[in-house]
Specification:
This protein is α/β, with parallel strands linked by helices. The strands form ten sheets. It has a six-stranded antiparallel β-sheet with strand order 15-14-13-16-17-18. A five-stranded mixed β-sheet has the order 23-22-21-24-29, with helices on both faces. The protein has a four-stranded mixed β-sheet with strand order 25-31-27-28. The radius of gyration is 31 Å and the shape is globular.
């Protein structure tokens, strides 16, 4: 930093980090031309004989130090190198930076790397460069000074856009804030620096995400090593290696072991037997998975591309078969259109079509034990007090407010079934809960639904004193978003809500999941519901549905709730989901066998089956 009031009270340190005060440099001066050049001079004067490489970086760039060191290791630092993402100006600046056709500069945001040779030559030119500035951009002027001192330009290589990653856009085209949760896997794997992250929480979350990615990579290597050991053990005498230490040798490369249906992706549409066979849009999680897989395939193909003087680029996906197995993971058969470019020897560019087989196994499960109360009776046991009287132990579980909008006389049997299920799974199990039912009175004579709801809730209230039942009536045509918001407005900010439809059957375990996966200010819960085929005992997971969700009222308010201009059923749930995607609140989404969309309630083992979410 330059000289200023900020550092006078704590010389040599700021927030626990070493701080260098550049003498004679005004800290608040902008543009920071003098500060930038004098910083480079200080770096050479103090570390010129101690370092091989120098990194000039802003305070809003995330640097993957280990990867950067590995990247620089084979490069000859005795040559003048000026490495970074090349720029020539954007928008209105393009062509106005006084650069010749063959000149550029390394963009300062994502960081600039200079060899010690470059720094030694640059140091001598800094005074004259400072006295002959042409523009107000310090990175442009540093680039001009490097060119004057060494005759070198910033690296033109296309890969530098990935290695020194800069998120474009933002105010004045200075870069849009990088949100770690939205960073693509390819950027995360290949970038040496990532810019900009101005918010402290984004910088911290990026560190966590990079560490998690590294951990996954190490676990993947370990898994591959164990599979290879299993294959080698097949040639050894039986008993040489304990079987408990071996994995299935077919885990990675045997299609014959797979059973069950495959999903087909054709013309960017999904055909799934498990989802009823109907054509539909490829779900987001599957589309992102395919993108990562194709990126991995290209990385493998291009691993030695530069040595061979060629590069292969992705152009299109003709079709893909996808198989999911709890033991063998995800298996892909891809038909890819690729572009083959050879730039050494006989130069050529040609389209090629290739079939690729990819196995993406699940990593070993990681279990986390959480202490919580037993969900089944006696959750709130009767106890004997000191004076011999009876009392009830306090239930420490979070109460769940269940909000249900209903309309139409035809739904009266469904409402009665819902209340029967509510009595069985909530009231009889002494679950701390509250029920809010929003009744739409679509016509003046439409009184039967309201009467049925009030009759049912009053009967439950009489049989289970102490439980809260709320019925509110809206005299208007049915609008799911309006109905949900009417129920939400009856809650306080700290209330945990489960927004559900009347034809959803749930078990008591569903409320435990709601409590576990909904965290105020941090996480909301969008379960994947199981939908039964009409009149059958089979069904499919509705991974395209977002209507059932749970959250604290304060978090619903944070995204301004539902879009109440959408009429009838549909779209309002997707809109709410997308609103949460645009916040820093996490979304937990997983198949939930304790929530079933069914025409008739089925007492099957499905509702009593535990599940585990596996990640790869």
């Amino acid at each position: 930093v330059g000289e200023g009031d900020m550092v006078e009270s704590t010389p040599g340190e700021w927030c626990g980090a070493p701080l260098v005060v550049l003498k004679g440099v005004e800290d608040g001066a902008y543009p920071p031309q003098e500060k930038s050049f004098m910083m480079l001079a200080w770096m050479w004067d103090n570390f010129g004989t101690k370092a091989r490489w120098f990194l000039r970086a802003d305070d809003d760039v995330f640097v993957k130090v280990e990867q950067l060191i590995e990247f620089l290791r084979p490069i000859n630092d005795s040559q003048p190198h000026y490495i970074g993402q090349a720029g020539r100006g954007r928008g209105l600046e393009e062509g106005r930076l006084d650069l010749d056709w063959n000149q550029n500069f390394c963009m300062g945001g994502p960081g600039v790397v200079l060899s010690w040779t470059t720094m030694s030559l640059l140091r001598e030119e800094i005074p004259s460069c400072l006295s002959s500035l042409v523009t107000s951009h310090e990175d442009v002027e540093v680039g001009r000074c490097v060119a004057r001192a060494t005759g070198r330009a910033c690296t033109w290589a296309y890969d530098m856009q990935t290695l020194f990653y800069h998120s474009t856009g933002g105010k004045d085209d200075k870069g849009s804030e990088v949100v770690p949760a939205k960073v693509g896997e390819r950027v995360l794997q290949h970038a040496l620096t990532i810019h900009p992250l101005k918010q402290p929480e984004n910088m911290e979350n990026m560190a966590v995400k990079v560490a998690a990615s590294k951990r996954t990579e190490l676990r993947t290597r370990a898994l591959k090593a164990k599979v290879m050991a299993a294959k080698l053990a097949e040639d050894l005498p039986v008993g040489t290696v304990p079987e408990v230490e071996l994995l299935d040798g077919d885990l990675l490369d045997n299609l014959a072991v797979l059973t069950g249906p495959w999903d087909l992706i054709l013309n960017h549409q999904l055909y799934s037997v498990k989802a009823g066979g109907a054509r539909r849009k490829v779900p987001q999680h599957l589309a992102e998975g395919l993108t990562r897989v194709v990126g991995h395939v290209l990385d493998v193909i291009n691993a030695e591309a530069s040595d061979k003087g060629r590069i292969i680029e992705f152009r299109d996906l003709f079709y893909a078969y996808v198989h999911t197995d709890p033991k063998y993971g995800l298996t892909y058969i891809l038909d890819l259109l690729l572009l083959y470019k050879r730039y050494k020897g006989n130069k050529m560019t040609v389209k090629v079509r290739r079939h690729v087989y990819v196995r993406q196994p699940f990593l070993p499960l990681v279990a986390k034990l959480e202490e919580e109360q037993e969900s089944n009776p006696p959750s709130v046991p009767v106890i004997v007090s000191a004076d011999g009287g009876l009392g009830v132990a306090q239930d420490t579980r979070q109460s769940v407010t269940i909000i249900v909008p209903v309309a139409g006389e035809k739904k009266i049997p469904v409402v009665r079934r819902f209340l029967e299920n509510y009595e069985k799974e909530v009231l009889s199990q002494l679950q701390p809960a509250r029920l809010v039912m929003v009744v739409f009175k679509e016509e003046e004579r439409d009184t039967q639904m309201e009467a049925a709801v009030r009759e049912g809730t009053e009967a439950l209230e009489n049989n289970y004193p102490g439980y809260d039942f709320t019925v509110t009536v809206l005299a208007m045509a049915f609008n799911r978003g309006v109905g949900m918001m009417a129920g939400i407005k009856l809650c306080v900010d700290s209330e945990l809500m489960l927004l559900i439809d009347v034809d959803i059957q749930f078990s008591g375990e569903a409320l435990d999941l709601v409590r576990s996966f909904s965290k105020p200010g941090e996480q909301v819960y969008f379960p994947v519901v199981f939908s039964m085929f009409k009149g059958e005992k089979e069904g499919y997971w509705r991974d395209f549905g977002y209507g059932i969700m749970s959250a604290y009222k304060q978090d619903i308010d944070r995204v301004q709730g539902f879009n109440t201009t959408i009429n009838g059923w549909g779209k309002e749930d997707v809109d709410l989901y997308e609103r949460f995607l645009n916040t820093n609140i996490s979304i937990f989404r997983a198949p939930t066998p304790h929530l079933v969309h069914s025409a008739t309630f089925l007492h099957t083992m499905l509702l009593r089956t535990s599940y585990v979410v596996m990640s790869n």
